[in-house]
Design goal:
A 6-stranded mixed beta sheet has the order 1-2-3-4-5-6. It is α/β, with parallel strands linked by helices. Helix 1 packs antiparallel against helix 4. It starts with a strand and ends with a helix. A hairpin with a 2-residue loop joins strand 2 and strand 3. It is globular.
Amino acid sequence: MPVTVKWANGIVVEYDGTRIIFDPKASNPAYQNIFITHAHQDHARGFEFQSGFKYSTRETYDLVKAAKNRRIQNWKPISYNQTIEINDLEIEAFNAGHILGSAQYKVTSPDGTIVYTGDVNTANTLTNEAADIVKCDILIIEATFGSPEFIFPSESEASTQAIRWAMKTLEHRRIPTFQCDHIGNAQELIRIFNSLTTVPVVTHPAVTRINRVYESYGHKLSYIDAASEEAKNLLSSKRCVFIASKNSNLQNNADFEVALASGLALRLGWKSKYFLLSDHADFHHLLKYVMGSNPRIVLPCHGGLLNGKLAKHVRDRL
C-alpha cells in the first residue's frame, strides 16, 4: 500500500494502516497521533481534543498553556532534530522560523519522504532563526502569501518605518499603539523597540503572559504590564509604546493612535495604518523554500484561493 496524503480537517499521512494527522481542525477518534506545528490557535486546536496523543515542541506546549490557561491531556514533547517512530513511519521535527517553538515535520516512510511546513519563515528575525529548508519527495507548504503581490520589506525596513511613526506620534502627544498577534509579532516588536530606541514598552496582559514564556526560554524583553501602576503613569503621560493583541478593544481610549503590525494587512486590504512585520514567508521566500527542498510534488495549503495560485507559479516557474 503506497503512502497517502490527504486533507481531512488537517493534513493526514497514512501508510499500511498507520495514520497521523498534522494541525487538525476538528476532533476525530480515528486519529490517535496528532502533531501540532505551533501555538497559534488556527494550528493548535488539537490540544483541545480529548482523544489521541498530542506531539509538539515544549515551547509550543508552554505557549498554549499560557495563552489558554487550560490543562492539556496526553501530550508528548518532540524537539528539533528528534525523530519519533510510529510503526513504519518516522517523524522528525525541524525549526520553522515562524514563532517560538514552531516546527516543521518530516515523515519518512518506505515509499519516500514528506515534509509539512506548517507556517514557515525563511528569514532571520530578532526572536527566531530562519527555517531549515528540508529536502523531501512531497512538500506540503503553507500558501498564506502564495501570490506575487505579497512581497514584504526586510525587517529592518519595517522596523524603521514603525519607529519613525511611533516617534512622530509621541511628538503629537498620542500613544503609538500596535495591534498584532500576541504570540510572535508582539515579542518581535518589543525586541525592535528595546534594541533601537529607549522608549518604554507597555504590553496588554494577554501579551505579557506570552512574554513570560519567551523570557523562560532565554529571550530578553523589557516591558511593563499594562495593569501595573508604572504602566498607568506612562500611559497617562503619553511616554510609551503600547502593544496589544489584534482582538483587543482599544476604542475607549482616545489617546491611542493605532496601527496594525502584520503581513495580513496586505491580504485583508487593510485601509488604516499598518506595518508589514510578518512572521510568514512572502511569495519569493516560499519559492525559495520549494527550490531548496527540491520535491517531486508540491501541495500548497492554508492559503484558501492562494493554494491554487502558488501551485500555478510553482508549475510555471519551477
